[in-house]
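User: Can you predict the 3D structure for this chain?
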Amino acid sequence: MPGNLSAIFGSSLDGESEQPSFIAKVILWISAIVSVVLMSWLARAFAIPGEPGFSASLLQQDAWLVSLLVVVVGMVAVMLVSAVLSSSLRSEAPVFCTALACAVISWRGGTMQATLFAASGPGIFVTLALETAILFAALIGAWQLLQRARGRPAADPAVNIVAELDDEEDQEGLDEKLLAMFTQASVMMALMILLCRSDAKTQSLASVGFSSAVAAAVAVQLVKVRSAFWLWIGPLAVAVFGYAFASIHGEGWQVGVLHGPLAALARPLPLDYVSMGPAGAILGYWMSGGGESEESARDAEPS
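Assistant: Here is the predicted structure, written as structure tokens:
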């Protein structure tokens, strides 16, 4: 069975695409468009969010459990569909497409102001932090499920998080991987403070995506990691820190307009972070040449 699934979903490894550059880009963006259309259809079919233009927080919806389950199942479905379409591309391509697709749900909803108006107190930021963690866990889970479907060995440290932490022969130690994540999150945080000056939907999404991409590119230059995973979970740390700070020192939530030294980190919604965050990080990883040396090393190994 794993072999059959591998034939369907592909078994591409981190590194250069097997396709010529132009064809690879066309395949990637076709996969992304199909993913966005599929997630958009799910959002409309199940009315997520319940009132378009208002709160886009899944945990604030009337049927919050249904909304959350639909998005999680949608992530898995989009991950598998995009894997079929981009089976000849780099292994992060399905994660990129799935994350990008989540942005359409956020786009259907309102800004952080609408979410704050629907809140009863600063405890909303704790809820947003929890929602962000759940969505990132779903994205990671869908990615791990895909690796099993591709037939990649459970002990492969490039895709198995537990194995990667325990791999004694890994070229990078755990400290380097955590350093890469910390670098990505730190640079992203600094850029977010400069760029996310309001909670306007376009600005929030663009700020998260651009900041995450630049931060990942910087992290790759400073710390060589063979798995982009340690970069695309950086936005989770930024989001949780921003929401935690806002829950204690946030100002202006009563009128729906956050202000303060770190308010920019709490302006994007969880769906903004889980969509443009990983998508931007993976794009920055690709553009900075991340994974190329590792792929060359694999090719040089005797089969």
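Confidence is low (pLDDT under 50) at residues 1-18, 153-159, 293-303. The chain has one domain: 2-151+171-300.
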